[in-house]
Amino acid sequence: MRAAPPSHRALVRQTYAQAATVSQQRPATACGLVSCQQSGLGCGDPTALADLQAGEFVLDLGSGPGFDCLVAAHSVGRSGRVIGIDLTPEMVSLAHHNAAAAGVSTVLFLRGEIERLPLRDEAFDVIISNCVINLCPDKTGVLAEAYRVLRPGGRLAVSDIVALRPLPAAIVSDLAMYVGCVTGAASADDLSAALHEVGFASVRIAIREESRSLIGTWAPGRGLERFVATADIVARKP
Ligand SMILES: C[S@@+](CC[C@H](N)C(=O)[O-])C[C@H]1O[C@@H](n2cnc3c(N)ncnc32)[C@H](O)[C@@H]1O
Question: Does the pTM exceed 0.90?
């Protein structure tokens, strides 16, 4: 298992703590991250990919401010449950604040690392995640944990950044590009291999070509859109 270099993990926590604090103080303002979007910190729409049904139990890996959890809670209704888990205490607190403001009581937010989920086996129907797995060096470990807590027949629906080709050294060495969800991205082939390795079936990874123009704006002039794109990633536990 490949652990995050301590400096990278600490930097991720520090960066997202700051983003959460800024967001709580000034809702709907830019958070300063290269990949930040107005409504959240994600790069896609995993709740739409997941085709959530009433009564389902959903886990969001790296829930951040909790917006996908709130959408999921609406989809699964009062008989369903949603748990969001995040590394950064300030994000967990922001997510609680956002859920309370939205009047949603069927969502629980926990602090934790998605490489070591504090959750029992086969507890969830669906796992979603939005722009988080790229921040985890041990992608196989994350996917193995997702597999463990999914019930048989359960589904994984992830939006994330994937690498289209190797990045130039000047971008790889820029830590802002790591915490901004660029340089930690795996290729679609590597993700597919990791998903199969831990046991997933019906794996589909679709690159969203249209994401590349937005990605180009994250760091104007550096050509990011030639190297990474958003992908929709779905799989099923047999
Ligand atoms: C780019 S933000 C995305 C947040 C949220 N999914 C969204 O779409 O708004 C990445 C989030 O992942 C969390 N994170 C990064 N690495 C993590 C890990 N190993 N375990 C749990 N959370 C992690 C960060 O704290 C941050 O809140």
Answer: yes
